[in-house]
Write a structure and sequence with these properties.
two-stranded antiparallel sheet; transmembrane; transmembrane helix; membrane
Amino acid sequence: MNRLSKWLPLVFLILAVVYPFTISDSYTLTLLAMSFIWTIAVYGMNLIAGYTGQLSLAQAGFFGIGAYTYGVLTLKLGVNTIVALLAAIVLTGCIGFLVGLISLRTKGHYFTIFTLCVGVILSLILEKWESVTEGVRGLIGIPGLSVGSFTFDSYVSQYYLILFCLVLSVFVSKRILHSLFGRTLQSVRNSEDLAEALGVNVMRTKILSFALSTMYAGLAGGLYSIMIRFIGPDISVIDHTFDMLLYLIVGGIGTFWGPLVGTLLVTILTQWMQFLAEYRMVIFGPLLVILVMFLPHGIMGSIAKRQMQRNLRKMEQATIAAGDSKRVGRQLDA
């Protein structure tokens, strides 16, 4: 598993880079790019729900803020596209910080319900604030990202742009989780009381984690605007939050590769069952139930758990073998 976990991401990256050279199917390319966008948002959800232990259901609302920030700044105000994308990330993070200041005063189910309400309120604001968001008409003709004279306006260029942002997001997540702050997040998840007794500022840690998770959603929303060029208030509805949660549960909540595996697998599976039309959920539902029954920790979580059990058995066998050799040695000395 250790070798697999080391080489599989590199194999995935190579396949993702060479894929557009082998297949010129724009539909599949768009599908993959969209799954990469959702993966970025799910990495943010994993940070607050999986590693900090605070299930937030407002992620789709922050996704919408990121999308609308990019759309309004570029389409209505003519702001540089790179500046607009950075502004989408920063503004979403600032709003997430303010929401976290209030919502994280609650705990457990109360926090989850509070964030669910926040997500609904954000979606309503995006729909009703017509002077800025154009209401249900949405924003049409959002410009693509430009770097100098080059514009990411083709399917292939957008695919590589989103792939680059995904790799960057995964890299940042890895750096966060392997830092002191990342270990602090996990200590808060395991026991807030114990973490506080050890000197951890629990509230500050949770607020920072919440704000970081919303920044991921803001980046994903901005990339969505760049790719689709049209956004409406439906992108921030609560259904998308539950989609993200589904991807995370399937891949493995609180595991590093769970967001990537879960999002790609569910996206490909649902597209593969498109020929069943509305009946696909009849098959997909039982499949999900079976997955939760037999892999309650998700795909990557179950693999990690089995690897841990195998390592423990090896350690026990090594300890028993060492004890036997010492006993034989003492008998020989006697």
